[in-house]
Design goal:
The protein has about 325 residues and is α/β, with parallel strands linked by helices. It is built from 10 helices and 9 strands. Strands 2-3-1-4-5-6 form a 6-stranded mixed β-sheet, sandwiched between helices. β2 and β3 form a beta hairpin. α7 (about 210-225) packs antiparallel against α9 (about 275-290). The radius of gyration is 23 Å and the shape is globular. The N and C termini lie far apart (about 70 Å).
Length: about 325
């Protein structure tokens, strides 16, 4: 009799635990969010701030982001998968057209679309054009995010909020500063509230699904973008030949190629006596060491892929 009672009690406890777990799962929310906006609207910086680590490279140069990058934000009650996209723009090359196609594909797959508009710049034709594009994705919730509030006066932020609010009926409008961390919690709470209920989509330790070689290539490209002429950033591409962890000591060898389109650009990237390339290597190496956890020996070669931005074959080779 006692054994039977114990078994019944255990069954009831198991049933209770199962029901409690089901309630927790039902309350949990998960889904996909994307940030869109003009180039240099602060999309990548915002994603990095929400995830809590550097997933996407950032630069003052336009069209820095070249593919959809996923960053995962974990909370006890939710998992937010942020998809960072290239800035929407009027394409001048085949590369530009393919980057816009990446954005269009992403918009069709997400639960929430956030239009990022910087507080320190007037609302322009580019912002209105992107807002109009959102009409093609009625399923997704729409949120306006006024970024870079740290770079504008309170009056200017208020004016921008009024202008943005007139674009459409938003599900929410949130002003914030990614650099100062202001209002990030408000945005995250807003996004969680707009996501469907569902279980986590990624393991708890996952912050991105970007392969290591892609992250390293992007860090090298980020370093190469700084201090170069306006027309050069679009021409820069980085590929990785190999990443080798040495067994005898804490050192990782990275063999990389930095591609440009013309001989004149090669000279700019290398610099006088190789000074510019050495600086690129030093800046990139510091960031790479942070993600691989060892010291890094970076073997960086500069090569030419003539007019690759308009060449379908070379674009395919570079993964576009």
């Amino acid at each position: 009799m006692d054994d039977t009672a114990d078994l019944d009690s255990g069954s009831d406890a198991a049933a209770f635990d199962s029901g409690a777990q089901g309630q927790r799962d039902a309350a949990h929310r998960s889904g996909f969010v994307t940030f869109v906006g003009r180039p240099n609207a602060g999309k990548s910086t915002l994603m990095n701030a929400l995830v809590g680590e550097k997933i996407a490279i950032t630069s003052s140069k336009p069209q820095t982001t070249r593919h959809a990058i996923r960053g995962v934000v974990h909370r006890d009650d939710a998992q937010v998968v942020i998809v960072d996209t290239p800035g929407m723009h009027k394409p001048r090359t085949l590369l530009g057209k393919r980057l816009n196609a990446v954005v269009q594909t992403t918009l069709g797959d997400v639960d929430v679309i956030c239009l990022c508009v910087p507080a320190d710049e007037p609302l322009g034709p580019g912002d209105r054009f992107i807002d109009q594009q959102l009409e093609g994705f009625p399923r997704a919730k729409k949120v306006a995010v006024v970024t870079k509030t740290d770079a504008a006066s309170k009056q200017r932020v208020a004016e921008q909020l009024l202008e943005v609010n007139e674009l459409r009926e938003w599900d929410a409008v949130v002003p914030l500063s990614s650099l100062q961390g202001t209002q990030l919690d408000v945005l995250l709470d807003t996004l969680v509230g707009l996501l469907p209920q569902g279980p986590p989509l990624y393991e708890a330790e996952t912050t991105t699904e970007e392969p290591l070689h892609i992250r390293i290539a992007e860090l090298i490209r980020e370093a190469a973008l700084e201090g170069v002429r306006d027309e050069l950033p679009h021409s820069i591409m980085v590929t990785i030949d190999d990443i080798v962890r040495r067994e005898d000591r804490e050192l990782t060898d990275v063999y990389a190629n930095l591609w440009v389109e013309r001989d004149s650009q090669k000279g700019i990237v290398i610099g006088k006596g190789g000074s510019r390339l050495r600086q690129v290597g030093a800046d990139a190496r510091a960031e790479i060491e942070r993600i691989v956890g060892t010291q890094v020996h970076l073997d960086l070669r500069v090569k030419i892929a003539k007019e690759w931005q308009g060449d379908p074959k070379q674009l395919g080779r570079f993964g576009f």
